From TrEMBL:
<dbReference type="GO" id="GO:0005737">
    <property type="term" value="C:cytoplasm"/>
</dbReference>
<dbReference type="GO" id="GO:0016491">
    <property type="term" value="F:oxidoreductase activity"/>
</dbReference>
<dbReference type="InterPro" id="IPR036291">
    <property type="entry name" value="NAD(P)-bd_dom_sf"/>
</dbReference>
<dbReference type="InterPro" id="IPR051468">
    <property type="entry name" value="Fungal_SecMetab_SDRs"/>
</dbReference>
<dbReference type="Pfam" id="PF00106">
    <property type="entry name" value="adh_short"/>
</dbReference>
<dbReference type="InterPro" id="IPR002347">
    <property type="entry name" value="SDR_fam"/>
</dbReference>
<protein>
    <submittedName>
        <fullName>C-factor</fullName>
    </submittedName>
</protein>
Amino acid sequence: GSGLNLLINNAGIAKINSLDMETLESMTEIYTTNTIGPLLLSQVRLSPKLVLAPGSPGSALSCSKAAIVNISSSAGSIQELYMWGPTHVVSYRCSKAALNMLSRCQSLGYREHGILCVALHPGWVQTDMGSAAGYQPPLTVDESVRGMLKVLSSLSEKDTGTFLDWEGKVVPW
């Protein structure tokens, strides 16, 4: 009855395709998981519970009150285009850029309800997906999680609508 304080949308799939090999089916599958899934989960199931959590409207935003954290990727940064050469992953990049915009829209739409919303890049992490192209990512899962937890604990009103990395640094849109 007291609501939900923190929703972390950690949807993420990718297909290693070159620009010329992307298909409607691939784009649709990746967008459905990486962008549409977090949207629907946030709006249909959990935002009513998140609205209950912050207590009095107008009080400062934070993860300890109510927050939506969308796990994004620096691959979704239009400015950076991280690792373009070896792996295009166009559908993944586009879906994460769209997730970043969704995070910004959520920050505006849910602000009046006291819900903080951010996009968070976990770093290039040693997971099945992170290692899929045959490279060795620099971050362990433990390092990434420790960093993200530290960032989450420090988020405040000034951070809503931003795109941050696991160290709390702003990622360019």
